[in-house]
Amino acid sequence: MLRKFIKNRFNQWLKRRMPATKVITLNSGNTFIFPSKSGLHFLISCALLFLLGTNYQNNLILFLVFFLCSFMITCLLLSYQNLAGLTLNAVTPDAQFAARDSLFKLRLTEGKVCAQDVSFSFQHPSSALQTVIEKDSVALYGFSKQRGYYNPGRVTVRSTFPFGLFNVWTHLDFGFNALLYPHPFENKFQVESASNNAQENSHYQSIVGVDQFSTLKTYQPGESLKSVAWKQLAQGRGWYSKQFEQSAGGDVLLDINSLTHLPLETRLSFLCYQIIELQKTHQRYALKLNSEPTKVGSGITHNQQCLSALALFALPISKVQEPKTQKYENQDTGKAQ
Questions:
Q1: Among 34, 62, 67, 132, who pairs with 139 as Cys (CB 3.0-4.6 Å)?
Q2: 124, 151 in Cβ contact below 8 A?
Q3: Which residue pairs from 30-34 have beta carbons closer than 8 angstroms and sit at least 24 positions apart in sequence?
Q4: How big is the CA angle at 331 (ends 115 and 99), to the nearest 5 degrees?
Q5: Nearest Cα to 305, choosing from 329, 285, 281?
Q6: Tens digits of per-residue pLDDT, 250-295?
Q7: Segment 44-89, tens digit of pLDDT
């Protein structure tokens, strides 16, 4: 209970001292320096040597103690300067899928001194994937099974440079909020036709394509020679070209009410998988979650709108609205937006 109380008070203090922001430059106001285990052992050794030197009045031992203390103070300054001036910019996280590792990125802008031996991780790790650190960017991973907006928490920046005597660290809140779509479950759910006309209530129709042979037609000058019916020409029947057709889906309606025998999250996962498959075949579809379905459409924008509707369907208002945050850095241009 005491540990939990101290942890909660510390987190509240962090929120007041270092609120959420998208661009953070490390300085003395947002970093903490404490001796590491090796540093504590080093200090204990210095204290024992000092007692030994004063007890036996050995100037050589005292000189060694003073030298070691000055060395440790120098390490303290170098540890701070290693991170001081390092600027971290949060990159807008893309929409991803629940029950998968979610990617979050930071862009690094180093100060006058190149930061060395720096580690990045979330304060409360949730993914088994390790952080990937490149020259000017950091990729961190979080994991959540819940759809909706996902905040992986504060990012811990830590360094023991140069000799591991001091641990320089901080917990930074970048206000990460990634929209997580439902986890797609593969299924053979029978989709419905979006057409209100009974004569058009079939799922598929034939259009000109290249899948299967349909008929022969009189060859027209200018047509590709690949379509010429050479067998008929060799038999002396004249010039003909082959006509092919392929199956094309009509407008499809994805209705969540047609899966009432399944739990809500399973229904959303089924619909998510269907939307992904329909997008691959460039088929037009509409999504019905409430009384009125969405407009029939296709393409990336329509796909993202439908997946976002699935991600936020029937969630509490606090989880449906994206939290207000400060400016993100644009992933493509590197400028704040």
A1: 132
A2: no
A3: 30/170, 30/172, 31/80, 31/83, 31/84, 31/168, 31/169, 31/170, 32/168, 32/169, 32/170, 33/76, 33/79, 33/80, 33/166, 33/167, 33/168, 34/166, 34/167
A4: 95
A5: 285
A6: 688 899 988 888 899 999 999 999 999 989 888 899 999 988 888 8
A7: 999 999 999 999 989 999 999 999 999 999 999 999 999 999 999 9
